[in-house]
Design goal:
By secondary structure, this protein is an alpha+beta fold. Helix content is about 35%, strand content about 10%. Helix 4 packs across helix 5. The longest helix is centred in the middle third of the chain and has 24 residues. The termini are far apart.
């Protein structure tokens, strides 16, 4: 602390050395920065916001920044920080009201749910638009007890960044196995010329191919999937079932 500074100088403590008109500049500065922060958070994607909406995250950042400095920097007047905090809360209340009253504002601020899986098939475009990798999705599905994609009827990436999954209650068809995690144990890839029995699942999107009526099919004769992948693995109803009981395994 400098020798010229007088502790508990009330004028310095609340107003500092700036003219009163500077309070209007604070209003302008706070409004611009808060709006810019909302815009940046909106385009960071749902994945980085955990369970907070952009509006909620903006107020957390804004209040945290405004409340921290005046606590121990003597050159930051209390009145300026109090004004910033009041403005942040007021702007949040205004934006929240606009979100409630206007569907367009709500869509811009919070986005819309994205369908990632339909009937056991991944949407590559939806994953890319949501800034999610296939491994990210599989991790979230495994956290909800999903073993293979055939169990999933719908999976939605919600506005708050959570994943909502609707699974088949019973009799799920064979699908692309996601257990164990592919980083630990990659699913077997059916090689060209290798005879297979049973349905196959595309390793790119999970689309299943029905078995040949004769009970045998040559993997080399399979055409590429609609997603562009030409790699397939045996589809299964339970990738964790013991081999002796896993009758749906496609390899002979």
């Amino acid at each position: 602390m400098s020798a010229e500074m007088v502790p508990f100088d009330w004028a310095r403590l609340f107003l500092g050395d700036t003219p009163p008109l500077f309070l209007l500049e604070i209003v302008f500065r706070t409004t611009v920065i808060f709006g810019w922060l909302l815009l940046l958070l909106r385009f960071t994607g749902k994945r980085g916001m955990a369970q907070l909406s952009p509006l909620e995250l903006a107020i957390v950042i804004g209040l945290g920044s405004a409340a921290g400095d005046p606590m121990f920097y003597p050159e930051v007047p209390l009145l300026h920080a109090m004004l910033v905090m009041a403005l942040v809360v007021g702007l949040q209340a205004l934006m929240a009201r606009l979100v409630i009253r206007s569907e367009r504002v709500e869509t811009f601020m919070e986005g819309v749910p994205v369908e990632l899986v339909r009937d056991g098939v991944l949407s590559g475009r939806a994953l890319e638009a949501s800034n999610l990798s296939r491994e990210d999705l599989f991790e979230r599905l495994r956290a909800q007890g999903v073993r293979q994609l055939g169990e999933v009827q719908r999976a939605y990436f919600e506005q708050d960044g959570n994943l909502t999954v609707f699974t088949r209650a019973q009799d799920a068809p064979p699908g692309l196995p996601i257990v164990p995690p592919w980083d630990l144990e990659p699913p077997p890839v059916v090689q060209p010329g290798e005879p297979v029995r049973g349905p196959l699942a595309c390793l790119g999107c999970g689309t299943t191919r029905d078995p040949d009526p004769s009970g045998q099919q040559d993997a080399g004769a399979l055409q590429a999937c609609a997603c562009g992948s030409d790699r397939f693995t045996p589809a299964t109803t339970d990738p964790l079932a013991p081999p002796s009981t896993a009758s749906d395994t496609g390899l002979n």
